């Protein structure tokens, strides 16, 4: 891979056109994370879900000098620089690797991570799940089995499922070859908080998201909401791969995947 | 099952001797949850991890009139009574089922949920993991494989494991038939927050707890902490079964298990 | 009394048309308090100022299955259900009595509790006392004695009065048979906080409201504001009786008064 | 009245020995309120419950140069000086009247306002009602009628009473000429908040205090607590008159009562 | 000096037309500070930067009965009146001196303190420095030496300067007789907080304001921002003198300067 | 300079014995700031008041690999790493320079920055100025002129002085060659906040500290407190030089001064 005359600021410009920073929810740590001279020519661009230590090490080893990640390097701020953060920053700074993140703006934007999932499930009449643009809510025409098969093929091999029988019953009670319109909600990443499950249960038959924990599972059972936990990783990497292609097409270079 | 002259207040007295309320961490909603005349004779005692709607329904169907759960009915308070909460309260009140919870006090107390885990893994030199008494930290003499086998047999069939190779390497580098002293931390229920993982990584080789999510997994990988997610359910139900026996021995009656 | 085919949701629909929920001030606990199936046919409707234990018991004894109260069941939320709250909820739930409240929305709305008072005193040029719609401010044409007589006849037999002499002096100094335009403010319920008295003193000659306490009385004296404490009960029940009639006319049934 | 060589600091010294400032509850605005040179000789000492505008005017007219009040001049702080506060401060400052308050420290201290009430009702086995020293709880030997008579004679002519019948029934059920030990709680001033009523209902048969409002009355009824509202004024002025005598005896001068 | 029929309210009206109160930033303690009858005829008007004790004493000694100050009498509110505040209030109230302040509204308004500085430096293309109207940002055509000379002549004899060399270098590198367009920011009073310096460094070559402290100086050095500390006093009094003239012209009287 | 077998952890151990971390006031960002392997041998040790960009650059240029500063690198935490912070961290990390700070613990500890000032002025009967150990209060035997001369010789050439005349008058009124006991308070660094001045005015005749601003100056004038502003830099560097010697004596090496 070699890029002719591409600078950090050019890449950032494309990302910010695709996923406008002003879409991000308040308090999200998006944008330039670590850097640096944005006018330097970039040789290799890396992409990852997380700016983890292993991703940062791989970026260095592969000669990446611009690293895009979906998750920011920090949620909570720090004022001393030791341990793992020291290690990460040292590698990035010594090797002058620019780190840039688009997080909830990439979740929310057109053709972003949530739109990608809505497309994957062929949802119709798609709306925002939340007023701030996070998640999608739409109509799935098919059986619950169909939804599960798509999830297993594209998101994760072994999804956790809650209340499948409730949706199956709906399907069985409908005519027309078990085909039925199901209201499906999706939210890439961590969407299975108790608050979200409570909210989504008012609109959806099926909710696909990630990071299901014990209390959320109990709540979903109580509320009779069918939940598919496709994993935080799985529900985000699907759209991230598509975003990778958007960048590649725009810059006419190949990006280096570092954790997917 | 039949209990001679046992009243709610007698059962509560035993529970509070076993798991003193003053051990609970601040803000935990422990003690009497729903009730009621504590002087009435009790016919049947139920026990469950969660006061979920299905547990409450089973309790009614089986004629339970005193229900003990580890998790409280509510973490955040409410001021209207509708939906699932209405359903639960209605069943409990109509059938005069007393609901009582011992939560972090049962996690912390002698022979409580964390002591049960420490015993299960035959930990030695056992200390509190946190100053408030939550969790345990001790020495395990054996291989990582041994730990995993105990987990699979008693906690959950398919635990999630992070950084197994790091501990395996330690074992391989030690002499004496791969037997080695490993520092093991355990915390029943939800212990795999990023904050906990960060804290535990300073003391332990292996951390067994529940509810691992994406960002916690990444952090554990970065910190080189070996984590075994035995599930919130699995790590709590093990000790809860033992607590069930303590009550049964004391009252000389059989308790009705409702979700384990 | 017997109601043909009236369901809870029909009654609620009328109430919410009369006193739109969106009028309520932020944080007010209005709407459905306890319930339940809103599609069940309702036999008897009760109405009260407070969902007190004695009101709830009377409601049960009189066969009420829909109870409307002006005051909500709780201001501050709870997470255990014991004592008086247990008693109230048990009676309501066992007997499937729906409890519904319209509080500040009923104070504020057209023909609501404050409009009722404004009409009672024949105020002219009536405006909101507060920007949020609470209270009324208008012109009373008459003597202070006239105001007091209306209060004694319709609100409470023995109102507490502060600074009567100040308004009397104004009357005496005016010509025309002591008849004079007085600026009168009214606020149903608890309106005699120090903050309110301070605020009202800038606009009004006379302030009629409820729940006068020591420090408020001293402040009114200092500010020279004439205050009539007609009682929290008195200033609210007057309009509540009219609201009772609105429901009766609409549904063509008689409501059962439970505390007035 | 004439005082030989008495300075403000001498009076303050006596007050602070009687009602030590460190007894006051946190955030209470006690001590020197307005002043001034504390070394000047004092001619006349005034005493009042409230530093109201009318009290301040009377103080000036009667030549008072040291004014003691139970209530502080302000609870919430200010940063502009206009209106009534301007008037009060102007009079106090122009006439060099020192204003000094002992509030919760005088409520709490030995022989203070609450002890005065405990003595009035001849309570036995007297304890603090609250851990911070506010209020008193003791045993009254007699009928409820006896309590009411004392209240009417010494506190207020027309006390408001809630749940009298509950205590009367207790009396009637006891032998020995209707004489019975009643648990009586007293709290001078504003003690009839919902929080206090809830708290006191756990210990006392009868609760005597001031400033009863609608919601507190309903709560007392529900909890079956007998409440006597003797008025904020009445329950404080009784002890304040005794405190006046203590000062007079100590300084051998007569104090000028300004609002009682 | 003698004023014909000028009342406080007339002076206030002029001030509030010149410096509208609604321009003030939230939480600023502007407007009437101490007073009083605003309908009384005013004999002498005083003006000062600070309502300090010495200013208040001078005001009294010179017979001032209306005192205007830029700084309010208090930023944080109080609830006892002792010490220096007692002294100030006593003098003001005894002598019925009205105290009135226009603070950030006078900083912000047209021809106010910041506009005065923008004019002094002949800035062109002047904009607000902050969105709320505080400060000014404009183009200075000349050398850094020119800026310094104006500062020394009109603001303060010995300004503190940081990073002069950076701006000098810019001048030297430009042609045209060292004349160059410099971006100059000004903020009257306390403008040299770290937050402000950080903000201003993104727009300006030179920043003129007051109250430079150690950490701010270090930050300015790091950011390469040239800072001139003209003093809180110096940067405010310059415009205050002009405001004095505006009042004098309007009322056709001479004001008494009390601290400048 | 060359150090035999000295590691970062050895230097840190000495610093923490001299200035125990537990002395620091809550929330102070002390200790290891940036690093790193603490077991590496150290060649050169640098010392500075501030970890400013120019100090960091000098440290690199002089081959420093352990840098001690009094001020921490950050007060408020951050979560992106750009601009000046990027530059500083990059230099420190690339060159593996350990940065370590002792701030309020060095102010407070025995022989720390405040003790150094107390010794400089030969104060007697020295106590903590604040309960937390910050500042010193003691007796100076001499004239105000003596204090000023010491300040000019050792702290700063041109100190700002407020209310000198008040202390001078005290001196002149005392006998014994103008020698008099003066109560002197000192506080290294930023001690001239309005809050501090108010507090110190109750104990001291003279207050020596740094960072005087306009409003503090006015307050000191009003309170009649004599203030000497010796500068934040001056009042801290005096003791820092002594601390440098302590390290040099202990490690038997010369430290490199970077900003003093
Ligand atoms: Fe995510
Ligand atoms: Fe749990
Ligand atoms: Fe009300
Ligand atoms: Fe009181
Ligand atoms: Fe200012
Ligand atoms: Fe400092």
TrEMBL record, chains A, B, C, D, E, F:
GO terms for molecular function: metal ion binding. Keywords: Metal-binding. InterPro entries: DUF34/NIF3, DUF34/NIF3_sf. Signal peptide: none annotated. The keyword Metal-binding applies. GO terms for cellular component: cytoplasm. It comes from the Archaea. Pfam families: DUF34_NIF3 (PF01784). A divalent metal cation binds at residues 70-71, 107, 232, 236. Belongs to the GTP cyclohydrolase I type 2/NIF3 family. NCBIfam families: YbgI_SA1388. This is NGG1p interacting factor 3 protein, NIF3.
